[in-house]
Amino acid sequence: MFRFKLYFIFLLLLAAINSSAQDVNYQAIKPDQKLVVNNIYIKGNKITKRFIILREIEVKKGDTLTERTLMNRLKESRYNLLNRSLFNFVNIKPIITSSNKVNIYVSVVERWYVWPIPIIKYTDLNFNAWWVKKEISRIDYGINLRVNNFRGRMENLVVLLQDGFNKSVQLSWEVPYVNKKETWGLGFKAGAVINHETDYINLDDKLVFFGETNKFIKKNLFVTLTATYRPGFKKLNSFYLSYDNYNFADTLLALNPSFAYKRSKFSYLSLRYNFKLDYRDYAPYPLDGYYFELDFHQYGLGLLGSGVNFLTAYVLYDQYFPIHKPWYFAYNVTVRTELNRYSPYFLKKGLGYAPTTLRGYQLYVINGRWMTLFHSNLKYELIPKKVVQVPFIHSEKFGKLFYSVYVNLIFDAGYVSDHQTYRENPLANKLIYGTGLGLDFVSYYDTVIGLEYTINRENEKNFFISLVAPI
Question: Does some domain include residue 174?
């Protein structure tokens, strides 16, 4: 995926001379005039079903609205369509046909939906951690076949085949709507992951690995069933029922008695609930709006005799402010807690695992019973959003693209409370923080490439690369 995103930069350099401002203007309508939606016309959806697009539009045929309400709903409708990751461009235009009737014209540029993505994956915590060692032998390889918008119904089908140092086979299928009202969806995911190497303990806030080249030391078989409920446009409820079977090498328990529940083989069921409230203008790289997420995950239901009983809770709030163009500000607050006094090491996901990262501490993992994180960006729009046409690529799916560049002033802070292993991990139970400068490149297909130079509380200076929005 990293190489694929670099390909976009190559296209931009070739197309820069053809750049032009994006045109998403609406036809002017008289203020306070009440209008009746006469019809909704859609073009550009060669694969996407019409009902999928209509589901995201916040007006229906026959609705009577004031001009102000109509324009606000069309604006939100465009955000809805862009945030489904189905289209590179969306244009919505109302045109009056008589004294009080209006037609809505929706024009979309669809993405390419079938991606046989090569897997070149590092076994370490993240790219920055792998780059410190640069060990080619710790690379996994394979193919990750993603069929987005499968059957034109916004379904996602994924087949993953991975070989190399660690091996994996996975299959998943997500169907967003299975009922007439288009509110309930279903999903399925199953697979196996087997590892020659895994981390078994955290020392000095770094993962310590153990591996054997001639046998697998960790095996995981899993199945997850998902049900989603989306009654409107901005709220999404997700319910998960999972089965996991683990098989660990006895050596892992000998190295760390707290690695698991004093057993090398066990199975358990899990329940998880996730709620999302999304009012962001463009989810891959928001500049305006807010986002809220709540998550509860219960590991172990007491049905398979495994002894697993572990509950986590997670809350996230993001806020994005346009200050005065070209200046923007964003911040978020994250709280995660483990509601059991004891938790096995292999289930811990402390600070350092996505999405609970802290800039300046990307090379660390800080485990604990609860954590609080704060991220902030003061953002300057260095290159405003441009639309370009690559001269020799005639397909709009690739030839028509956009890009923008932002400079960020970073400040993050966090606190992790740990009463199990704090003696071996000095960053726990203290306020940590990092600051620095970042440069973000944003383009189509949800591409975000970030370059960051940070300084943390320990006065460590580092350069990092990221492939997601900083907040």
Answer: no
What is the mean pLDDT for each group of 10 consecutive residues in the chain (471 residues)? 45 42 45 88 97 98 94 96 97 90 96 94 64 69 96 98 92 98 98 93 94 91 98 97 96 92 89 98 97 96 85 97 96 94 85 92 94 98 95 91 97 95 94 98 96 97 92 91
Residues 342 and 458 in one domain: yes
Q: How far, in Å, CA of 418 to CA of 438, rounded?
A: 31
Looking at the structure, tell me whether residues 94 and 243 fall in a common domain: no
CATH number where 73 lies: 3.10.20.310
Does residue 134 form part of some domain?
Answer: no
Burial of 73 (0-12, 13-18, 19+ CB in 10 A): buried
Domain boundary among 81, 108, 135: 108
Residue 459 maps to a domain? yes
Query: For the chain, what is the domain count?
Result: 2
Reduced 3-state DSSP string for 59-77:
CCCCCEEEHHHHHHHHHHH
Structure token digits, residue 35: 């209008």
Contact 143, 116 (CB under 8 A): yes
Helices within 244-302 (DSSP H only): 250-255
What CA–CA distance (Å, rounded) separates 353 from 185? 28
In angstroms, the CA 122 to CA 132 distance is 12
Q: Among the three residues 108, 140, 173, which one is the final residue of a domain in this structure?
A: 108
CA distances from 252 to 138, 139, 217, 294, 318 (A): 19, 22, 8, 33, 39
Q: What is the pTM of this model?
A: 0.90
Using CA atoms, how far apart are residues 415 and 423, in angstroms rounded to an integer?
A: 16
Range of the domain at 91: 31-108
**In a domain? residue 70:** yes
CATH code where residue 303 lies: 2.40.160.50
**pLDDT given at position 16:** 41
* Angle, CA of 150, 156 and 161, to the nearest 5°: 110
Q: Let me know whether 101 and 213 are in one domain.
A: no
E strands present in 154-283: 155-164, 166-175, 184-195, 197-203, 206-211, 218-229, 235-248, 265-278
C-alpha of 186 from chain center: 19
Other C-beta atoms within 10 Å of 62: how many? 9
